[in-house]
Every structure is written in C-alpha cells, then in structure tokens.
C-alpha cells in the first residue's frame, strides 16, 4: 500500500473504499486485465474489520465470525492463508434478566414455560414472514409497504410480546442493527433474517453465523488481500468529489486525482453522503444516503490469566438485559490462557465515558455474570465504532420505517458511470463480510461487461 503522493492516475476503474467489497471488486477487475486504483479514506484497509491486541493476543474489534455457508469470504481467506477456529461453546450459557442470573445448556434459556412459548411464537412468526421477503429487492416483496410502515417494536406490541421476548429482541436488535426495536423497520429486520439464513442460523454459534473466526483476525485477511494489489491501493485518501463527463469520471482526494472510465463506490450507504457528486445524486439516492444510516455498536475485550469460567462449567457466552454489556463470548486462544471475554456494549451508555470508566463498567458486569474472579483482569481493550473520526457507525444500517420501500430500490442503480457495492447492496448475506465480497463480485461483473462493450465498440470504430 502506498501513502498519498501528488499525482494524477489514468485507469480503467477507480474503486472507493478498501473493505472486503472494494478489495474483492478490485481483485476481480485486475484478474480480468483492467487497470485499477483503490482509494481508502482511513489510514488502513479493512473498513469494518479491524485488529486490536489484548494480553498479546490479536482480536477482532469489528467483523469476526464466518459460517460454513460463507463461501465467498472463505475463498478470499484461503487465497491468503487464513485459518479458522470454531467459536468456543462448551459448557453452560449465562442469562441475566431483570437482575436474575441463571445458566442453561444448549440454545434454550431457562425461562418460564409461558415465556418460552411466547418467544417461540414470535420467532416462528418472524421466520414465516422472512420467507416471503425477496432478499435482493425486499421493497418488491408481497406486503412490502405494510411491513415497512411499522417498526419492530410496534409489531412486537401488536403480537403481544411478553417482557422477556421484548428483552431478548432488544438485545438482538442492538447487536444486529445497532439500535433499539423502535428505530428499525419490520421489513428491514425480515430482510436481514432472510439474508442470514433464518432466525436460528442468524443467532447460532454451532453451525450458524457465529460458527468460527480467524486466528489471524479478519483485518489481517484484508491486509494480505490488499497487499496482493500492491501499489494500486492508496490509504489516507478520502474521496471528496466524483465528477462525470461523457467519457469517464474524475475522482478527487485532497492530493490525488484519478481519471477513470468507471468508478465503483463501496462505502456504507450513509457514507456516500461524504462525497460530492457532479452531476448531483438524484433525490431518492440522496434520500437513501440520509435514511440508511449505520447503527452503532461497541466491543470490549477483557483478558484474564486463564479462562477461569471454563472450570466452573461455563461457556463464557452470556446474554444480559441490564447495564452496558449485553452479550459476551469466550475468544480465548487456548485453555491455558490468556482467557479472553469479548463483550458487545451498548454505545448509548458506553461511548461517552473515558476509557477507564468503560473498563470499570464492563468488568463490574463480568463479575455479575462470571463471579469474583472476573475482578482481576490482566488487560483490556475496546472500540467504539460510532465515534470513529472517519466513516463512523456499526455493523449494519438501522433502517427506519418507510426508508426501505421509499429509497431501497436505488441502492444499486448506477449514477451514470458510478456503480455501487458494499455489503448493504448484497442480497443474500447482506450485512456480513460474505455479503461484502459477493457485492464486490457483482459490481465487478457489471462494470467489466460495460468495459467490454466500450472496448468492442472502440475496436470496431478503429477497424472501420
Ligand atoms: C462491531 C462489528 C461486528 C461485526 N461482526 C461481524 C461478524 O461477526 N461477521 C460478519 O460477517 N460481519 C460482521 N460485521 C459486519 C462486517 O464487518 C461488514 O459487513 C463488512 O466488513 C463490510 O464490508 P464493506 O466492504 O461492505 O464495507 P466497509 O468495510 O465499511 O468498507 C468501506 C470502506 O469505505 C471507506 N470509505 C468511506 N467513505 C470513503 C470515502 N469518501 N473515500 C474513501 N474511502 C471511504 C471506509 O473507510 C471503509 O474502509 C461486523 C461489523 C462490526 C462493526
């Protein structure tokens, strides 16, 4: 990867963003013989995957897990030598609801029969509705208008969800969409459930979305993948402006200009708004950028000498409706230590505090969940995605009611010579690293087809 230099580049395609979508699009186009430049606004590649270190162990501050069905991201990882390890699930899970702690084996928490029946009914209804959603174009699904007109919370009200069901759905909403159930449209929730292979698959570790993670970390995969592109990738290059004339596009950063035949923008939908387009984006395309805003999510890692909870028969997996932390997982590299607990934290009560306050909040909750030994951490790290200075946000957009039907259909509609990718634009697996890679592949085929048509036309003209 190169640092920025004063220069003008002339290439076939300029790719904006060096997350998995941008890197995949660039690779595919280079493989097809086209010249490519990738411009990344951050000082690193990877986007929503980012490596941190705690007690000498590399950890995923952003995107982490892959399932056996995530074949696209796995192919990328295989190409650069990534090794998966299964998510640790042995032992009992911990549940903390309304101040009461319980532990349970398997996937069904220890709740009253009435609570379990209510939760099962809600889950079944969501799964049934999700099956009717067109994952590529949810806005065209039967009853799309109706499903997009209410929030998840309103729907839970109508279905008479009990407080336990609401508590669990709030936790799921915070981790999947980085918001509250009142902030997200039912249609968008159903699309994600469909895209993530159903409710159970979305939540499961064994055999599901949280099945395994990479020893090297996911950003290390992105870094290696970017390295194969060599000096085509420029970091510290936030794109400010994209101008189109009849024959191509000019893409400008603060100190670099790229003239290309096509541009591919792979930022999250919200961050398209950070670029000035000439001609300007259509009203619906601007509406998309304004309304498909990323939710927020924070992650903390607390390291101990040993994974002490395992000796107590606990898996380290916990779900709680109280306080800052709402889900934990054991991501220890070995039973001998260090023991590492990963905690998803609620940005609204976490991000504004100083680091030592955040650490104290997390450790206090881990003591409640796993006992007094949790009071003696040897190291700590966290990352608040919502407060990133560039391209802030969480894993997925918190798409509010009406915004899917009103603006969703323009998401992949080219703006002249500007084409779009990014995990949000994927159908199946949208919102995951796998979706990001798939979107990069889709857009590279789209643009390669156009380049081929132009090349054939030019050749015919030259021969005439
Ligand atoms: C906390 C967290 C946990 C997650 N957990 C998982 C998980 O376990 N499994 C999973 O599959 N997925 C997970 N995800 C989601 C996953 O990380 C993303 O879906 C995926 O990485 C998105 O890739 P992308 O290339 O589409 O977008 P990004 O990675 O966001 O890449 C877009 C890039 O564009 C850059 N950019 C933005 N604006 C500009 C500009 N103007 N100029 C130049 N560059 C710009 C950004 O800096 C960014 O690098 C998680 C995400 C988060 C945040």
UniProtKB/TrEMBL annotation:
Can you give the residue ranges of the Amine oxidase domain?
Answer: 20-447
Q: Where does FAD bind?
A: 239, 424
Q: Give one Pfam hit by family name.
A: Amino_oxidase
Chain positions recorded as substrate binding sites: 344
InterPro entries in alphabetical order: Amino_oxidase, FAD/NAD-bd_sf, Flavin_amine_oxidase, Flavin_MAO
Q: Which UniProt keywords apply?
A: Oxidoreductase
* Key word Oxidoreductase present: yes
Q: Kindly list the cofactors needed.
A: FAD
Q: Which GO terms describe its molecular function?
A: oxidoreductase activity
Q: Which domain of life is it from?
A: Bacteria
Q: Does the keyword Protease apply?
A: no
Q: What family does this belong to? A: Belongs to the flavin monoamine oxidase family.
Q: What is this protein called?
A: Flavin monoamine oxidase family protein
Q: Which organism is it from?
A: Nocardioides antri
């Amino acid at each position: 990867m190169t640092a920025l230099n004063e220069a003008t580049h002339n290439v076939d395609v300029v790719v904006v963003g060096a997350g998995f979508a941008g890197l995949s699009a660039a690779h595919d186009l280079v493989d097809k013989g086209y010249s490519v430049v990738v411009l990344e606004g951050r000082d690193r590649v990877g986007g929503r995957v980012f490596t941190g270190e705690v007690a000498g162990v590399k950890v995923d501050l952003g995107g982490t897990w892959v399932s056996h069905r995530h074949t696209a991201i796995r192919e990328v990882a295989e190409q650069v030598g990534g090794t998966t390890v299964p998510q640790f699930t042995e032992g009992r899970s911990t549940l903390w609801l309304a101040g009461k702690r319980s532990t349970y084996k398997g996937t069904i928490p220890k709740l009253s029969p009435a609570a379990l029946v209510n939760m099962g009914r809600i889950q079944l209804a969501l799964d049934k509705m999700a099956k009717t959603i067109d994952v590529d174009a949810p806005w065209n699904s039967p009853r799309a208008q109706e499903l997009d007109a209410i929030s998840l919370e309103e729907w839970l009200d109508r279905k008479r969800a009990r407080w336990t069901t609401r508590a669990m759905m709030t936790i799921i909403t915070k981790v999947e969409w980085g918001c509250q159930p009142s902030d997200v449209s039912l249609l968008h929730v159903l699309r994600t459930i469909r895209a993530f292979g159903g409710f159970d698959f979305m939540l499961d570790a064994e055999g599901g979305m949280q099945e395994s993670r990479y020893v090297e970390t996911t950003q290390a995969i992105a870094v290696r993948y970017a390295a194969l592109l060599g000096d085509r990738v420029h970091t510290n290059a936030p794109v400010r402006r994209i101008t189109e004339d009849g024959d191509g596009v000019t893409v400008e950063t603060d100190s670099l200009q790229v003239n290309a035949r096509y541009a591919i923008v792979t930022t999250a939908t919200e961050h398209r708004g950070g670029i000035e387009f000439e001609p300007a984006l259509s009203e619906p395309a601007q509406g998309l950028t304004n309304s498909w805003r990323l939710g927020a999510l924070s992650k903390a890692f607390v390291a101990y000498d040993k994974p002490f909870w395992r000796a107590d028969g606990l898996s380290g997996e916990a779900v709680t409706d109280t306080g800052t932390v709402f889900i934990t997982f054991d991501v220890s590299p070995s039973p001998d230590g260090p023991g590492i607990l990963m905690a998803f934290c609620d940005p609204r009560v976490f991000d504004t505090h100083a680091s030592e306050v955040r650490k104290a909040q997390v450790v206090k909750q881990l003591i409640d969940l796993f006992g007094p030994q949790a009071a003696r951490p040897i190291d700590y790290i966290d990352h608040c995605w919502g407060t990133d200075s560039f391209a802030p946000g969480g894993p997925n957009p918190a798409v509010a009611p009406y915004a899917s039907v009103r603006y969703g259909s323009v998401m992949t509609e080219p703006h002249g010579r500007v084409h779009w990718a990014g995990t949000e634009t994927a159908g199946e697996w949208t919102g995951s690293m796998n979706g990001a890679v798939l979107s990069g592949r889709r857009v590279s085929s789209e643009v390669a087809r156009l380049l081929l048509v132009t090349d054939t036309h030019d050749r015919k003209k030259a021969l005439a």
